[in-house]
Amino acid sequence: LAWIMGLIRHVNDQDYIGWVDAKTGEPVRDADVKGNYEEYILSHTGIRLIEPDLALGYDPVKKHVLREVQIEHDMAPFEASADDAAAYKKSNGDRVDVWENAGGASWSVRFLKGALVRVPAAADAVALVGGMLPTGWIGGRFGIPEDIIQQVDPVTAFALVATVEAFVRSGITDPYELYQFIHVSEIGNTMGSSIGGLLAMQNMGHSRYLDKDVPMDTLQETFISTVQAWVNMLLISGAGPVKPSVGACATTVLSIDTAVDAIMAGKAKVMIAGAVDNLSEESSTELSSMGALSNNVEEMARGREPAEMCRPCTTARAGFTEAQGASVAVLMSASTAIACGAPIYGVVGMSATSTDKQGRSVPAPGKGILSSTREVMGAAPQRLLSVEFRRRELERQLRMLDVWKAEGLEQAADEDEDEDMSYKTSIEEQYVRQRKALQDSWGNEFWKQSPAISPLRGSLAVWGLTADDIGLASFHGTSTKANELNESEVVDVQMRRLGRTPGYPVPAVCQKWLTGHPKGPAAGWMLNSVLQSMRTGLIPGNRNADNIDLKLKKFDHVVYLSKTVQTAGIKAALLKSFGFGQVGGELLVVHPEYLLATLSRAQLDEYNAKLAQRDTKAARYWQDTLVGNHPFVQIKRHAPFTPEQEQRVYQDSTARAHYDPKTNEYRF
């Protein structure tokens, strides 16, 4: 954080190697960074008073509007160009006089009595607090070139940094490396946003109206699809599925659901999912006018600090705290992740989205996501839910398939040589296809199309889990009256339907008390928290939960923690996300050990060896960035193939990249 915020920098010269204070240039020992900068860092990260430099210049304390005023007497003339004078005359007619000055070099303009002008007037704002990026955050520090920063909307800079971090966390320091394992058409992108480029929208509306200079390509930066386009153009050069997502505050869960569908359908092996959103005067003002944001003026009058404004599930909750940022996740098929040795933080056991019933309120949360527990009451076949039963059936059918293959190859031996090879190849391909189909039929997809097994129950049973194995429920938890009541009821009803043991409630994690609500990226931040809980066994408490709403007491299957709890481990977690526009979303996340347990000892050893190499490589990448050996975001200057190779690479399904030690690049 000290580096990100520009408080320290690393030097490497003849006299000194190490950290120095960015202002004074004085050396700073590693051990002294916390002591020197902790107080500043804590007060300039997370939820705090909105900082104009990070909010596109918006200062809620100095908020103003333009109000129309009719002048009551002729004003003094002022000088203008001929074009401006003509424009004033065209707009105001006989309420303005214009004339050419002596010499013809300029014109004079005088507004007359009755003319209308707009003048700035102070306006009150009630949202004074936000979940902001760290003070001093700039894309240039991460290596984004200045010409790119000037061209793109700030949310694209957020996305570029977050995408590189997601790759590095996946042990991939160069995205082109993936083309050793997959075709360029097998990596896709579903990144989106709830709003899009807010600065570009400001330029297109406000700045144009005020006749300010606006970049010529401003329109493109307002499009939701533009963010993923820049990510692909500057970092990935992929040619796979592109499905930009927009689902308001549920955008990320929608993005992940779409990415999962693409992988499961065989359209891709790697997908980049997530969302970006900013905070500005427009978003803050309009969310406040809807009553969605906490009224910070009233909260301060009650003696609350900025960090106490967002209080999910409490009696006094009164709206959320808006935030800004990005969330990006790298999703891979399990076989791809294992083949390349990427760290697996969690398994998406199920993803689902839903709309809701008839209504007239776009923001109102609904219960449509309850459909993930739809099933014929009391009809769930227990044998089919058993992993042991499905394993036996799979093995039995695989033996039958082996017999079919052997008979086919034996028959092929009687054909002539050319036909023999063709028929053998066909048999082998069919065998692999049918084997995978059987594994799907008795594995991930055994419950599909069965009215007796709900998607959530079936997805748990794939891994031999039940409702009692859900270790936490990550709540959308916006700190609004309606959301917490609706979400608590949904989770409670689901747990009852799945048969969770009474008296064994699922802990609710409501992290927006700490992070604020970033709109589109929200579910990505929540997923990150879930993965941290799976790694550590810790269930974080809601530190602002000083008085849980008594209306939530009736939901026996949910417990609202105010303190962090250490558990023996989290086997599975359920994540909910709700967005304006009837967008409900849900993820079931399973601990990666359940996947790794399916590998043989030899496969696991091979995977762990690759994983150790990737961990080392990723750690070195971070270190080299901090000490200035290379930028964090390394913008690509060319595709991994030449123009002459392009068509062949796209059309050859076997085309793979290789590492060129001479250029230190991956290329075809």
UniProtKB/TrEMBL annotation:
EC number assigned by the record: 2.3.1.86
Keywords annotated in UniProt: Acyltransferase, Transferase
Domain of life: Eukaryota
Keyword Acyltransferase: yes
Protein name per UniProt: Fatty acid synthase alpha subunit Lsd1
Native source organism of the sequence: Coemansia nantahalensis
